[in-house]
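Worked example 3 (structure in, sequence out).
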């Protein structure tokens, strides 16, 4: 359950000599019915976990691709409640890979924090990412998540002072999400040169694995960044490929990224 399940999955991949890869998909994009198949497909492709987004009307950290996916999901009635009950139906805890929910704070508030944490556990959710909850305000939910054995994955930004980065890394459970661009989610061709040094600092100071996310859209980028941390998170590119029915390209992206390449 939770943190241990994430750690176990990561260790399994790393001891097989692979990089970690976490795809982000928007729950309900293409219908909630296909969720289980999609997770199975990703697991078979070699991912270390799946990050599942809850659609929200005001996604401040998201660029156009994920905003559009959220609109499609909301249009077919997807809600936090519907996602949790769908996960519970197919028992995410017997899912072949850990499931990490990514949701803004507002849907959690309207659902009820205590009930949210309890229902996540019942639905087999292993970890949570809440991008609009700063460290200073996390205490209340942190306790609830702990009580229900759910890993609370923290995000760190390139603009954080070093001391704050280290504090966030210390608190993070499962892994540390290193946001590797300044701006919103969305595929980009290249990353700022400073990203590598930033990842090196995190890697040196983090007690948990470090994964870089935001702007990664190709095997080359994944390989380049993975050489400075434990792996990558890819959202917009995966969302686009699934939306275009190019599942085979998704598989190639995952498989190319998890191989330890010439750069690493
Ligand atoms: O789409 P990108 O640039 O590949 O970035 C990953 C990202 O999509 C996913 O982790 C995510 C989607 N929405 C978020 C909001 C905040 C933090 C992270 C996320």
């Amino acid at each position: 359950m939770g943190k241990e399940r994430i750690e176990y999955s990561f260790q399994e991949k790393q001891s097989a000599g692979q990089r970690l890869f976490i795809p982000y998909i928007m729950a309900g994009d293409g219908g909630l019915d296909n969720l289980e198949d999609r997770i199975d497909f990703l697991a078979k492709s070699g991912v270390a976990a799946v990050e599942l987004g809850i659609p929200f009307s005001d996604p401040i950290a998201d660029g156009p691709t994920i905003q559009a996916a959220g609109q499609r999901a909301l249009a077919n009635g997807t809600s936090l409640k519907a996602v949790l009950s769908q996960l519970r139906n197919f028992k995410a805890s017997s899912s072949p890979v850990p499931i990490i929910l990514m949701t803004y704070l507002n849907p959690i508030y309207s659902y009820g924090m205590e009930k949210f944490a309890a229902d996540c556990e019942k639905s087999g959710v292993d970890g949570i990412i809440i991008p609009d909850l700063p460290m200073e305000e996390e205490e209340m939910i942190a306790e609830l998540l702990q009580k229900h054995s759910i890993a609370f994955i923290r995000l760190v930004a390139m603009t954080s002072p070093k001391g704050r980065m280290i504090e966030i890394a210390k608190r993070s459970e499962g892994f540390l999400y290193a946001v590797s661009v300044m701006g919103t989610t969305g595929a980009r061709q290249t990353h700022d040169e400073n990203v590598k040094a930033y990842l090196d600092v995190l890697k040196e100071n983090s007690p948990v694995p470090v994964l870089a996310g935001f702007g990664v859209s190709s095997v080359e980028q994944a390989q380049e960044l993975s050489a400075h941390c434990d792996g990558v998170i890819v959202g917009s590119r995966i969302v686009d490929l699934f939306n275009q029915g190019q599942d085979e390209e998704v598989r190639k992206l995952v498989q190319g990224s998890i191989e330890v390449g010439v750069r690493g």
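Notes: The longest strand covers residues 20-26. The mean pLDDT is 95.
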